[in-house]
Automatic annotation (TrEMBL):
Membrane spanning residue stretches: 37-54, 66-86, 98-117
Organism the protein comes from: Actinomadura luzonensis
Membrane as UniProt keyword: yes
Keywords: Membrane, Transmembrane, Transmembrane helix
Name under which the protein is recorded: Integral membrane protein
Length: 128
């Protein structure tokens, strides 16, 4: 398996960004609630930020890698909570969109948490 996952990670985050923008377009057409607009906007902004972080991580910046690693583990948990909440205020179509986002971000978690990738970003003082 390739030890440099950053083009795949960037593509996954770009897919999240495109999907989030499409979600906002759907909300504009169907009349989304404030919850839909808030979540959709926040995910779009976060995805744009994560695309930028993926570029930094590809250039070897450990802080970018650590942030991506944290978000890729935490975000799917948040998505599961949204999907399981009985009255979260999210319409079914947005829950479906969030499920796809969760799968995309979980794929990032799989890529960036492999041993070979972790070893490429050693903690300070652990350089060989």
């Amino acid at each position: 398996m390739d030890n440099n996952p950053w083009s795949a990670v960037r593509a996954l985050f770009l897919a999240v960004l495109v999907l989030s923008i499409a979600t906002l377009a759907v909300a504009a057409v169907v009349g989304g609630t404030w919850v839909v607009w808030l979540r959709g906007g926040a995910v779009a902004v976060a995805a744009a930020w994560l695309v930028a972080l993926a570029g930094q991580a590809a250039r070897g910046r450990r802080p970018a890698y650590v942030r991506i690693r944290f978000v890729s583990l935490a975000a799917p948990v948040g998505v599961v909570i949204i999907l399981l909440a009985p009255d979260s205020g999210y319409p079914g179509w947005m829950k479906a969109e969030q499920a796809v986002v969760g799968v995309l971000v979980a794929a990032v978690a799989f890529l960036v948490n492999r041993r070979s990738v972790r070893e490429a970003f050693p903690k300070r003082g652990k350089l060989s």
